[in-house]
Specification:
mainly alpha
Length: 149
């Protein structure tokens, strides 16, 4: 199975689960840590809020959530004014929040790995799909809005 066939939230949950297994399975709680629990919670909550904001926009406009589904509309308002991938950014922030909360290498690795998967697989796939579907309006949007932040 190709990774593009997987849904990004499932990949995030899988990476978080692997990080948790390593964190507790190897008993990393007492070792080297870079933990900022309050900051981690704030970043994770902000990421969840961003993700839910986009989810509501998609629901209102009947836009498919699955990256493989046909794209019917180009969203350029709300959080899309600041980033072309606010839903993905929200999920990355949630994983980064977990990393800061627990402070161990497996959680940091999960957040970084997820970002790399999104940036190298899902974003290019969706960008080519959007350019094909919307042409010039999408290219103009892409030229003025960053992929992340």
């Amino acid at each position: 199975m190709k990774i593009i066939a997987l849904r990004p939230p499932r990949i995030a949950m899988g990476l978080a689960a692997c990080a948790a297994l390593l964190h507790w399975g190897l008993d990393l709680r007492q070792g080297l840590r870079l933990s900022l629990p309050g900051t981690g919670m704030a970043i994770g909550i902000a990421g969840f809020g961003l993700m839910m904001w986009v989810w509501l926009i998609f629901r209102k406009r009947d836009i498919a959530l699955c990256p493989m589904a046909p794209t019917t509309q180009l969203a350029v308002d709300g959080p899309y004014r600041f980033t072309r991938n606010p839903m993905y950014l929200g999920m990355v922030l949630m994983l980064a929040g977990l990393a800061l909360f627990f402070g161990t290498l497996p959680f940091y690795g999960a957040a970084l790995g997820y970002l790399l998967i999104l940036n190298s697989v899902f974003c290019p796939y969706e960008e080519s799909k959007l350019e094909e579907a919307f042409g010039s309006p999408y290219r103009m949007y892409r030229s003025r809005t960053r992929r992340w932040i």
